[in-house]
Amino acid sequence: MKTIDNYVPPDAASLRRLQERLGYNDAQMAELAGLDEAVPWASYVGGPQPRALGRQRLLAMAARLTLDEPAWRQVLAAMRDAGAQFDYGTPDMPAPSPAPVPAPEEETKFGMRLISDRGAFHEMEQLREFAHHVHALGASDLVQAARYDSGADLCRLTLSPPRPEDAARRDRVFDAASRTLTRFAFDGRIYRGGLPPESDG
Asked: CA torsion, points 120, 126, 132, 137, in degrees to nearest 10?
């Protein structure tokens, strides 16, 4: 049977971005992670030494976010079949439903379409910084769109078809992306770039 090896927990910034994408408050995130009052969610996303989120807890969170209610109840039934005893919701207090997914946000700068799939503030700030850098480097005409795939936490660039005479300016687009975007795809590869601006969460 295969298992998860070499697990590295998500860092505090990644967990804050997840919380922002979900639109959950700290209490909802604590419930999603199965935390009790002795260990608040804030201890995983802040402070000088944030706690590490264990593999099993993250797996349970991912399953809860991915599975529909009938499939999730099958998981709970399998836990009970294994001998566990627990309560799950009550008639007067049902389990919370996921928060609605925020709407996309889009704007145009220097002829480039800037899109955040979920309208996240920090994504739009990165896209605006990217647009300004590309424009200042004289390569904005090469970028048709920059779209933040919020679910993958990845910016995808749509560039004009490559021409030999544009090679140096395409390098400038890459330079602008590496300075302003946390993660971005360029010519079929994924890169990590500069630090993001402060989040609104």
From this structure: -150
Q: Which of 120, 59, 72 is nearest to 98 (CA)?
A: 72
pLDDT per position as a tens digit, 30-43: 888 888 777 889 88
Distance CA 72, CA 89 (A): 13
CB 177 within 8 A of CB 184: yes
Q: Give the tens place of pLDDT for each residue, 55-111.
A: 888 888 888 888 888 888 888 888 888 888 877 765 444 555 666 667 889 999 999
Tell me how crowded residue 176 is: count the other CB atoms within 10 A of its CB: 26
Given CA atoms 32, 34, 36, 41 in this order, what sign does their dihedral have? negative
β-pairing verdict for 183-186 and 154-159: parallel
Token pair of 25 as six digits: 């408050």
β-sheet bridge partners, residue 191: 184
C-alpha–C-alpha distance, residues 194 and 126, integer Å: 10
Contact predicate 91/58, CB 8 Å: no
Phi, psi of 13 (to 5 degrees): -65, -40
Tokens encoding 18: 């997840």
pLDDT digits (tens, 9 = 90+) for 150-163: 888 899 999 999 88
